[in-house]
């Protein structure tokens, strides 16, 4: 096993880890990045189809307010282009396809009013949370004892059955988990970071642009700047820390550093052995912030035929095994690419099927919305994020009931010389690539401050000795 010294070790080469390492290198520090996968990007991933088409299979879209990622694209020479939004969206309910325009699908004025009322109430609740400490809100204990599913099921909150169905499906998408598994306070924490649930549920805001070459190309270029500081296929097994520094042991490399930033999904950070052990709050938090289940399928066609039908490619079918689709056609306009998803318990049910049966069900669901042509893709690619050993699900970890009020104080709090970064710990754009970048830069600033304070303390001691 090789041994190396550095000022800082970063565990994880997703956007959080790469952003942290980049900031530290720019400040003149020696950095080593250890990544478990054989690639960088973490929960963003470019996959190549047999015909050579490359598709982004993880985090893909950028949106309004995601300023840091847009800036990184500019700095690293990557163009972005608008998401295709022309034509009608489709809502499929009770076997009927309903065309609509705008952000919110409805089946009548009653549904629209109920959705508007629910979002307004959730927005007001989210605004009452301190952005950096939601567990300190006056109603935090009550909200953390209740699930998002319980709140949505209450007719006093959502006085329309159709609206409740739409909202549950939307929340399934956001958390890749049944709303019955998600703390109401945890859900509001996500909303607080984006300015309300309206931000996350309006694709015109969160999914307004794509990166030419895919978001993973941005991660690759960030890593390219870091050069041989990045070590792939190096899962970290143990972190030993004391008052003098940290020792990080991976499968292939041992690193001695002054500080370490753990920039992995919390569930994976919880699998690292720490000596001495983490505080109770920190260790319990890492065990509880778990990802949901998601299967994503890319179907490729010679051209985006749905556009000729006056459709945008964006559909919502709450009772379908494949509830969401969106157009992911490249900038050139060909081939036509549909990205479609199964979430939560639906993804678990689909995963248990024989692959041939799963594909048949999946394509039949697309055909219900787009016609028989959807059954005949030239390429079909499945990505089951729950089967990925260094993700264990996607696309973010959610907070079950009781997690934030009991253990939330450990979310960003350093443990000695150990610092934390992940999109789950972001105060702004929580759950998005933007949140991951911001969390990495925040952790890097913590480390820079600590290193500077250490130097000043050493200089002061040297001066007194003289």
From TrEMBL:
Residues annotated as binding FAD: 35-36, 236, 424
Sequence ranges assigned to domain Amine oxidase in this UniProt record: 15-448
Keywords: Oxidoreductase
GO molecular function: oxidoreductase activity
Binding-site positions, substrate: 341
Cofactor(s), by name: FAD
Gene3D superfamilies listed in its UniProt record: 3.90.660.10, FAD/NAD(P)-binding domain, Guanine Nucleotide Dissociation Inhibitor, domain 1
SUPFAM superfamilies, A to Z: FAD-linked reductases, C-terminal domain, FAD/NAD(P)-binding domain
Superkingdom classification of source: Bacteria
Keyword Oxidoreductase: yes
Family to which this protein belongs: Belongs to the flavin monoamine oxidase family.
Name this protein carries in UniProt: FAD-dependent oxidoreductase
